[in-house]
Amino acid sequence: QSIAAVDKRGRVLGLFSTVFFGIAPIGSVVAGSLAEALGCQAAFALLGTALLLGALLFERQRKRIEARIPR
Predict the structure, then answer these.
(1) CB atoms within 10 A of CB 21
(2) What's the rounded Cα separation, in Å, for the pair 67 and 61?
(3) Can you give the C-alpha Rg of the chain in angstroms?
(4) What is the pLDDT of residues 4-59, one digit of tens each?
(5) Which residue among 5, 14, 18, 37 is the one 20 to 30 A from 28 at the CA level?
(6) How many CB atoms are closer than 10 A to CB 24?
(7) Number of neighbouring beta carbons within 10 Å of residue 58
(8) How far apart are CA 53 and CA 47, in angstroms?
(9) pTM exceeds cut of 0.85
(10) Max CA separation in the chain (angstroms)
(11) 38-53: pLDDT as tens digits
């Protein structure tokens, strides 16, 4: 949000909120389906691993993203 242009910050926050709160119900359905099919422990392990991999991939890209931001 802080890297967005001042006149675009409201739009960025609106988009962020829509995506964040809109994805949560979809994730709940996926997590519930996995827990039902594989069991709770396996679902937690699988989803936790996916979260960790996503965070690592984001961290790799973060430096490239920050380098493109005009200061």
Answers:
(1) 9
(2) 10
(3) 17
(4) 778 888 888 889 899 889 888 998 999 999 999 999 999 999 999 999 999 999 99
(5) 14
(6) 9
(7) 10
(8) 10
(9) no
(10) 49
(11) 999 999 999 999 999 9
